[in-house]
Structure formats: C-alpha cells, structure tokens
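User: tokens in, sequence out, please.
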C-alpha cells in the first residue's frame, strides 16, 4: 500500500486549538517555527490548565504530580497503567512528561486523565456501498467503488468521527476496539442480556477476522497539552460481503450523539486527524477518494 500520511507533518494543527475544548482558556500562541523543543525559546510561558473534572480524582485520572504517594514511572508499564509511548522514549522535565511532538501553548493535563500518553483505540468498520440489487456502486468520475465507514457524531464538540475511546488499565487493544464500537455505535450499554448475547455473536464474526492496522502513534488532538497527549491504534475491520453489519442495527450510545454509514471521500471533515486514517483505508482497498485522476503522492 502506498502510504502518504506522515504524522509528523504539521503535527500541531488541532493541538493548538484555542480556546481549549470545554473551557474559555486561551492557549499561548506558538509560532510554527517554535513548536519543536529543539528550538530554544526562553520567553515561552504557556498557560496552566487542568479541567475540574480531572482534578476531582475520577478512577481514570492520575493525581497531580505534587500529590503525596504519587510516583509515576514514566516510559514504563506502571502497574496496570501503560505509560510507554508508541513514539518511543519521551523527555521528563521537572517531574512532568514532555509532549514528543512539541509545544502546544498549554501545560497541565487539560481534559486528559494521564500525565504523558493517554492511549486510545479507533475501530474503523467498513463495507462497500451497494445498490438495491447488492451490486457495488462506483463513483461516476473516478470509476472506483465507494467505500463506507461507521461514523459517530461526538456529543462534546459536534464533529463526526471514528467511534473510539480510551484503553482501560490492563485492557488489551483488541478488547477496547470491540467495546468502544459496541458502546458508541450499537448502544450496547442499554441492551438486554439476550440482545447483548446476539450482538456479541455478530461482533465476534467481524472482529475475529483478518484486520488492517491503519496507524499507531501520536494524534493531533485538540485536547493535547505540553504534558499530556493522545496516542491511538486505528484498526480497520472490513465487512467484504456486507452481511455481518446488516445484522447489527446502528444506534448511537455513550459519547455518541448520532451514528451512520458515511461515504468515504476527501470531502469528509472529521475530528482530529481521523480523516488521515480514513484516507489510508481508502487507499488500502483501492476505493474512491477524490475526483482528481492524478495521484496525490508518489513513492
């Protein structure tokens, strides 16, 4: 597969969103040429912000660095909490981990629970768009078949996104991918035991098949700070005949306001850098992406 996505290009676009999500806190402005830590910037004075919901001490959040009996083991598996980064070792300065992709204009944790990497998982469920007779539908200009994926509309910001969420301590990525999809796109939390059992059978058919790891690493996310950031593993599960997903009724649940099948194309506007992941999936399956006959990247 030809991979055009370089996660290090313009990596802090969404991660400099201001005001910070869910607040009126304005980030300090960071010029493009000063994002990287290799560039010295003595006058850099970022704003400090950690949301009240994080400071309240929920089970998914770390205490403050200064808290008694809190000695996090950064760059290691810390008990059940994974503090290793998918991007390799990160620096720790004055007891605080430093965002490996550079300055964001804000220190603290914002809305994120963990100091350092906050691990997420994004299941990308796809199928071919078909007509009433079951034939694949090709785009009239590109001539390529149209691929669809299950998208949710996030309640927190109103943007369309891949259904996904945070990896629980000690949880395997494969379990997170399945759990998040069932909670957000199938509303499993509100189902009866019998409904859950039937749903589980269909889910196993889909999630136990061969899959494609689209991306593993840092995510340009509006919640990122200098000391806390999102990393994800995005995985594509493709329902080639389309039969498995026909037996699963899409219903928004948990953090999702809406859920639906969306046609994949470059016109999609998605949360964070989810559009980059979707483009890679379209390339993987040779599906329609844009109407330009000239390829956008070369080996």
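Assistant: Sequence out:
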């Amino acid at each position: 597969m030809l991979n055009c996505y370089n996660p290090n290009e313009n990596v802090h676009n969404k991660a400099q969103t201001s005001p910070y999500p869910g607040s009126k806190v304005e980030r300090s402005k960071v010029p493009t040429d000063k994002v990287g830590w290799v560039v010295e910037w003595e006058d850099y004075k970022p704003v400090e912000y950690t949301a009240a919901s994080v400071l309240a001490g929920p089970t998914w959040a770390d205490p403050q660095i200064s808290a008694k009996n809190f000695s996090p083991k950064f760059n290691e598996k810390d008990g059940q909490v994974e503090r290793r980064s998918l991007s390799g070792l990160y620096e720790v300065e004055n007891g605080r981990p430093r965002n490996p992709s550079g300055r964001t204009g804000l220190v603290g944790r914002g809305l994120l629970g963990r100091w350092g990497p906050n691990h997420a998982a994004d299941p990308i469920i796809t199928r071919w768009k078909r007509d009433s007779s079951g034939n694949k539908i090709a785009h009239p200009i590109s001539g390529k078949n149209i691929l669809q994926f299950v998208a949710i509309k996030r309640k927190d910001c109103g943007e369309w996104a891949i259904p996904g969420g945070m990896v629980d301590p000690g949880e395997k990525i494969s379990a997170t991918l399945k759990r998040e999809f069932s909670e957000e796109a199938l509303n499993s939390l509100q189902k009866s035991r019998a409904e859950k059992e039937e749903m589980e059978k269909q889910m196993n058919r889909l999630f136990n098949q061969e899959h494609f790891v689209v991306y593993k690493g840092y995510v340009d996310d509006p919640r990122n700070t200098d000391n806390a950031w999102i990393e994800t593993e995005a995985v594509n599960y493709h329902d080639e005949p389309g039969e498995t997903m026909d037996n699963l009724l899409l219903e928004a649940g948990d953090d999702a306001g809406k859920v639906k099948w969306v046609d994949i194309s470059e016109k999609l506007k998605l949360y964070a850098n989810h559009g980059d992941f979707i483009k890679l999936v379209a390339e993987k399956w040779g599906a329609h992406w844009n109407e330009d006959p000239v390829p956008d990247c070369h080996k």
